[in-house]
Amino acid sequence: MHKLGDTRSSLQRDHLLLTPDTFVRTVLPGMKRGAAIVHIGAALGAAFTEYTAELDKGGELGDTTGQRFVFVNDGVVTVEIDGKRNALGARGYAYLPCATAHRVIASEASRVIVIEKPYLAIDGVTAPRAFVSNEDSVSSHPLDDDPSLQVKSLLPDDVGFDFAVNTMVYQPGAALSRVEMHVMEHGLVMLEGGGIYRLGDRWYPVTAGDFIWMAPWCPQWFGAIGKTPAKYLIYKDWNRHPLGTPRK
Prior knowledge:
Elements: E1 10-12, E2 15-18, E3 32-40, E4 49-60, E5 67-74, E6 77-81, E7 84-88, E8 92-96, E9 102-106, E10 110-117, E11 131-134, E12 141-143, E13 146-153, E14 163-170, E15 186-192, E16 194-199, E17 202-207, E18 211-214, E19 220-225, E20 230-237
């Protein structure tokens, strides 16, 4: 039975926790046979947009004016780039620069995490090209020499990229070594397991399916609880001087 008026979702000055019970679906321009759950965007002051696209078989994302990162949560999608088709299953992903002609079409019912943002160019630095990959093919490394906390960097370590996307896996009981406060903002989707997140001065239980936005300098900390590992996909702006990053 639904507890009337009760939710874990919370919107504060420097963070947002959005839980599935409060998700509202909409159709974005150009989207076919699907719907989007918009988690964060410019309306809240973020410098990027992140949403989950739920696509029926044959469903398709619309166009975007920004660069786009696509991560397949479940299902299978075909990403067409310059006439070449790439089939991406679960944990497959694609990076698509601004003005890259492409299509993202579901081969079966699929859920896809989509990150979009304007590109911040640097004089003399070549903008990155489109590519596809799979998380399974990316090697992991421990964070702060802690083997119970593993990170996979899904985008290359190249100054041409103005943002980073990582997956992080915490074994039960693993936690960040300190509370972090920094200039980057984050968009985070809990993929598996759960734990406790500190955001600002508040503490939240979180679980698979939740979305978190963290504004710049939001105090943040996470610890995994339960009997299974906790895993999330996390975005951050990266490789750019703060003077070159417009904020509202």
